[in-house]
Amino acid sequence: MSPRLLHRARLQVSHRNLAGSERSPWVVLDCDGTLLRPDGSLGERTCRVIERAQQAGWHVTLATGRRYSTALAIIERLHLREELVLQNGAVVAQANTGGILHYQGVRPEPLAQIIPLGRRYEIDMMLFDDPRRRDGGLIEALPRNLLDRRYVLENGDLFQKVPDLAEALPDWPLKMIFTAEPDRMKHFVPILKQAIQPWPDVRMVVYGGSTRPVWSVEILHQQASKAAGVSWVVSRHQASLEQVIAFGDEMNDYELISAAGWGVAMQNGVSELQRVAREIAPPNSQEGVATVLERLLEEGGEKELAE
User: How much of the chain exceeds pLDDT 90, in percent?
Assistant: First the structure.
């Protein structure tokens, strides 16, 4: 069966199995590298097709690494109403107010053990606090790499400098980020992976690849993932991941693209994600999200929902 016919059959089965509950698909969108064009803008075609999906009764929301404040312009432009999955799944927030409905921080004990490793191998470190307590982070020094240094300098009000991150660790912070140039990180990542092995409730996500001038690693709670966050949201509406059409481009989308009823990887995304996706969308430079959604709506989604 072709991917197109397979998808249509899956939607029809999903709709039949949801008698007495919400039948509408959930469209879940990553932002950077997926929904947004390379210059960070929203395309008009993308905005129109998302409005069309909403008018058809489809739920549309975000699953992004962004904070609420940096996603707000997107939320308002797309008139999103559903709960949002933010900070790579560690936070679920209300679309209209940013009020936090669900939070999953990481225990401080493993962070206290790996912070000295980052210092020893001269890796830049940023520790982000529980956003219910403080929407910001801690650093020991300005990052050495230019990308993170610029980010810190441009968002100086978000960061507090402390002498020792391990001593300043708050209870259940949001996440820890390590960044450095690729050669240094290729050596550091296996060391970090071994160091967190005794902590089964801790996970790491590596952002690397030949095109990245700086590699980064996020340390989060095991349940702080986009898949877990989206599952928490749809469960509130008596729905399941089988009803989710998810779009992404990076490794932080991996679990969600794998678990969604229809996982879509961007052509500009990482190859690991494309291998587990059910479909590969055109690149974000061509508004690939709009291309896929237009087709899905035309293949019977709107008609079936109307019936």
Answer: 85
Which two three-digit tokens encode residue 14? Answer: 């999903």
Residues contacting residue 233 through CB under 8 Å, at least 6 positions apart: 61, 82, 83, 85, 92
pLDDT digits (tens, 9 = 90+) for 236-277: 999 999 999 999 999 999 999 999 999 999 999 999 999 999
pTM given for the model:
0.87
Q: What value does the mean pLDDT take over residues 279-299? A: 97
By the 8 A CB rule, do 196 and 151 touch?
A: no
DSSP string, 169-224: PPSS-SEEEEEE-HHHHHHHHHHHHHHHTT-TTEEEEEE--TT-SSEEEEEEETT-
Tell the CATH topology of 3-103+225-306.
Answer: Rossmann fold (3.40.50)
Chain position carrying tokens 């947004």:
36
**Whether domain 108-221 has CATH 3.10.129.10:** no
